[in-house]
Specification:
The protein has 17 helices and 29 strands. With 576 residues, the protein is of the alpha/beta class. The protein folds into 3 domains: 164 residues, Rossmann fold, CATH 3.40.50; 215 residues, ANL, N-terminal domain (Rossmann fold, 3-Layer(aba) Sandwich); 155 residues, ANL, C-terminal domain (GMP Synthetase, Chain A, domain 3, 2-Layer Sandwich), CATH 3.30.300.30. β14 and β15 form a beta hairpin. α4 packs across α5.
Amino acid sequence: MDIPRACNAATWFVDRHVAEGRAGRLAIRYGGRDITYGDVRVGANRCGNALRRLGVRMEQRVLLLLPDGPEFVSVFWGALKIGAVAVPTNTLLKPRDYEYILNDSRAAVVIAGEDLAPAIEAVRPHLRFLRQLVVAGRPGPGQVGLAELVTAESDELDPADTTKDDVAFWLYTSGTTGTPKAAVHLHHDMVVCCEAFGRHVLEIGPDDRCFSVARLFFAYGLGNALYFPFHVGAATVLDPRRPEPAKVFDILTRERPTLFFAVPTAFAAMLQVADAERLYDLRSVRLCLSAGEPLPKPIYDRWLERFGLEILDGIGSTEMCHTFIANRRGKVCPGSSGTLVPGYDAMIVDEAGRAVPPGEIGNLLVKGDSACAGYWNQHERSQQTFVGEWVRTGDKYRQDAAGCFWYAGRSDDMIKAGGMWVSPAEVESALAEHPAVVEAGVVGAADADELVKPLAFVVLAAGHVASPALEEELQAFVKQRLAAYKYPRWIVFVNELPKTATGKIQRFKLREIAKKTDRGGKPGIVDGKGLSSPLIPVHRCAPVRLAFASPERLFPCFLFTITGVATRRRGRGSMP
């Protein structure tokens, strides 16, 4: 698609439908309400006018701290329409995280949900650039309410004189270490994603209805639930509640979406619901999509067996805006990320930047016109990631003869054992096939001779108890499936894996724990004091809970870059 120089994303994704006679067409289903494209246009225009009245000018940042709902949509498009920069932000962070993001972005205005406003107030004395906090919902004493602001505003708004290369929105990436960095996206980036992934993989049309477990503040969710449907005049289903399996099944049955977007963790949790294929009606769904972490083949197989639906797994990133490699309907290669999405190119290179032969593991680079312009105020990190047109994904991959890409772990997660590379993702996937394993995370650990070997952290399924016998059973299980040098020399049984607020496994924490293992070769258990305490041999105690974010907190939020933790559909083992 030839995108004209003069371009405003809000005009394309919203105003165009009204101008072409689709004002009455359904845009959003929310809380049992129908919201039309005409309604969205009015909401966006009023929000844009309100932001201007608050003094927001072109290129100034507006931070969105909102649950999925009409307010998010109105503020997002309203900010873009006046040429401001929307900054959708994770709603599950801590006040100190918001302090960093607000000062880094220099946002002039924050639009926050009523339950989230206290987190901003808690750090407000330290916010150097914030001029106004606006509360969506019931404002507290002395606070300004969004509803009050927009009620008095005009329904009409002329778009700012933006070009396709003007900045439209930022998305902060959490990473597994270090401070978040903002990927700067332009007005044309969303259109590029729609013409690539939306057209060639989703094959989305005006009669589709989308529902995404991943939230709008993530790159994955923003495309799934907002700009993909709005590109073609389709509808989206928004729900602000935590997407527990029963609630998700209820939405699929009641709202009857045709496109269902989730992550492997969500699919695994849904597979734990007994008789779900009988209790719920998924006949409206024509495609299931997955990203965020590799989709293990066992989950794919069980979902297909129970619901008769393929899951199209893929890889995307915040830097690339959405998906650039994906499986296709009727051509799924289970366990792989699929093939290149039209409009993108990729290459796998060694540490010197030379292309590796097919079948060999290397660093994945990708290019396409949806790539962000860089990281805000992060010159060195931008230079490390963006090399001309190419973007270093930080992922290790191999490509087979059929053109399918197979995830092998993060670039800094690969393990060299006995002079040979071991992919953590491959070992995790093998462990995940065992009936006792819910999920696993693998890192390298040094033995008594300071030689690095694989160490596995394993979360057990309900009814299974940690023991030396189970450790040996799992090691033998992996040996049967992979080359002998890849099996984990130690197994640490834990109740959960450490993850970021966006659901990415924190391998640096696993590596910290691994340093405390007995280098004589004994497996271990982390006790209740977490990283500050020694590991105890496995036969002396049962798994205990680590002081990490709970899976219940992590379930609704997923960053788009693949992380490499394998999951199973069984319940978590409990502490005896």
